[in-house]
Specification:
By secondary structure, the protein is mostly helical. The protein is globular. The model has no long low-confidence stretch (mean pLDDT 97). The chain binds adenosine monophosphate and tryptophan. Adenosine monophosphate binds next to helix 1.
């Protein structure tokens, strides 16, 4: 039987952080063992908020380099820039003709971003482009963090509507959302998710942060006025967040963490968390430093060629269904 297909994307803006890693990228790397994986640096999504062109080009390259350093393996998976494969935008247009504006109005990520940045048509149709990304390659599964769940539901709705109207074309993709780490919270505000766009850098740990920065960020993480290390999202979100991070890097269960650190005070626990994160991220920083930009550029261009080769016949199928090709 053919291997199931996985697709996922990440925006190349700001720097890749612990939330991206624990929520999604860890799975990207792991799934390569068993799936046909297609991973996309979604630069067209990123320009739905204003970018400085020169800086953006550099950031995009750095994001690709981080993905490679973390273990996305171009010999096993496709990796490319979305804008280099025009079929994404083509399919997005076709899907936009069956997408309901009522449903798009309910997208929480759009509402949040539009509140902050002011709206534009691209920001509004962002979820339709995301659906096109996934459906273009007939993906079966999509590894993402919790915040993308609603977009995945929209993707499935669009696939179902297309199939009902034009004939069975798209499988309905399932999200792969981890049990732990699906929503890593800000270190400065445990009620908000860790985010690239948070103006306060103290809320996040970047994959490429040096050990001193990581230790400082974890040490200053906002917790609560108690002293007991206990897994309780309702009363102790800051500590619960750090416990999830520690658990993911060390494999310790929540019970084991409570047994080891429960009454030892937050200082001792935070030190252990910081050391676990420093050790866990060190290999990525080393691999990043060893990659040269020319090699990254070549890998991304080769990825785009291979992705176009696969996307063209898929689009032909869509064109025939819709009546745009004989
Ligand atoms: P983005 O940076 O918005 O392109 O997100 C890339 C991937 O990281 C998506 O799958 C997100 O769901 C995931 N992600 C982003 N922020 C977090 C977070 N704080 N916790 C867990 N996953 C996240
Ligand atoms: N919307 C996703 C995010 O903000 C990025 C993304 C774009 C994506 N296209 C995708 C994720 C396709 C999974 C599959 O993180």
């Amino acid at each position: 039987m053919a291997r199931q297909r996985v697709f996922s994307g990440i925006q190349p803006t700001g720097n890749i952080h612990l939330g991206n890693y624990l929520g999604a990228l860890r799975n990207w790397v792991a799934l390569q063992a068993d799936y046909d994986c297609i991973y996309c640096v979604v630069d067209l999504h990123a320009i739905t908020v204003p970018q400085d062109p020169a800086a953006f080009l550099v950031e995009r390259g750095n994001a690709a380099k981080v993905l490679l350093a973390m273990g996305v393996d171009p010999r096993r998976s496709l990796l490319y820039y979305q804008s280099r494969v025009p079929q994404h935008a083509e399919l997005a247009w076709i899907l936009s003709t069956i997408a309901s504006t009522g449903q798009l109005n309910r997208m929480t990520q759009f509402k949040e971003k539009a509140d902050k940045a002011g709206s534009n048509l691209g920001l509004y149709s962002y979820p339709v482009l995301m659906a096109a990304d996934i459906l273009l390659f007939r993906a079966d599964a999509v590894p993402v963090g919790e915040d993308q769940k609603q977009h995945l539901e929209l993707t499935r709705d669009l696939a179902e509507r297309f199939n009902a109207r034009f004939g069975e074309e798209f499988p309905l993709p399932e999200p792969i959302i981890p049990k732990t780490g699906a929503r890593v919270m800000s270190l400065q505000d445990p009620t908000a998710k860790m985010s690239k766009s948070d103006p306060d850098p103290a809320g996040r740990v970047l994959i490429l942060d040096d050990p001193a920065t990581i230790r400082r960020r974890v040490k200053r993480a906002v917790t609560d006025s108690e002293t007991e290390v206990r897994y309780d999202w309702e009363k102790k979100a800051g500590i619960a967040n750090l416990m999830e991070v520690y658990s993911l890097f060390t494999g310790a269960s929540m019970q084991q963490i409570e047994a080891e650190f429960g009454s030892g005070g937050y200082g001792r626990f935070k030190e252990a968390v910081a050391e676990a994160v420093v050790a866990g991220l060190a290999p990525f920083r080393e691999a990043y430093d060893a990659l040269d930009d020319a090699a990254v550029h070549r890998i991304m261009e080769e990825g785009a060629v291979a992705a176009r080769d696969r996307a063209v016949p898929f689009m032909e199928g869509v064109f025939r269904r819709v009546g745009l090709s004989a």
